[in-house]
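Newbie here. two chains, one complex. Structure please?
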Amino acid sequence: ETGVTQTPRHLVMGMTNKKSLKCEQHLGHNAMYWYKQSAKKPLELMFVYSLEERVENNSVPSRFSPECPNSSHLFLHLHTLQPEDSALYLCASSLAPLARSTDTQYFGPGTRLTVL
Amino acid sequence: AQTVTQSQPEMSVQEAETVTLSCTYDTSESDYYLFWYKQPPSRQMILVIRQEAYKQQNATENRFSVNFQKAAKSFSLKISDSQLGDAAMYFCAYRSAHAGGTSYGKLTFGQGTILTVHP
């Protein structure tokens, strides 16, 4: 275990549903990340939060809406998704909000999302 | 923009043997960090080893070592005395050392290499 948990581990939803993914880190970190892992593609960074402020949005469609209420929790709210959004969604956290360090990102187990 | 390329989609090794996974990257920056992450089947991705670009010495963590060739922009991972538990998808990743801007904290990953270990 890396100290980062994600729920649910598996989610099946229709295109008209609204659901949320949850990530929690127990490491005292200040930065949290959402990644998308699709088959046969590199991991793609979606969002970065540092000290609860969004610092990067990698041109992600608005049907994905992140929320970071505090430094330990991160959510990804989903609505009107498409079948191509089916993927493994990974959350990660790191200690330092500054890039200039050997700051390591710790990953959660992921949520396997299937959009029907 | 930085890119990371892992040219070996799959590799296999006999238990107790040595295997090397390849990674190349493209960047115009001189200061950055490189990582190898391991993702076992249905398990969490964990850090295997990391390298600071300003260090000439290759990083080593027990049975894992890297061959960092900065001029060639190459960062290979060597696994010695392979064990069954080493079977996983391995990802090479790059992160800029510059704070701020669009490179903030961003890890750029390669496509991954699936490693199979045969008993």
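Moderator note: The interface with chain B takes residues 1-2, 4, 31, 33, 40-43, 45, 48, 50, 55-56, 90, 94, 97-100, 102-110 of chain A (CB under 8 Å). Chain A is about 0% helix and 55% strand. Thread marked as resolved.
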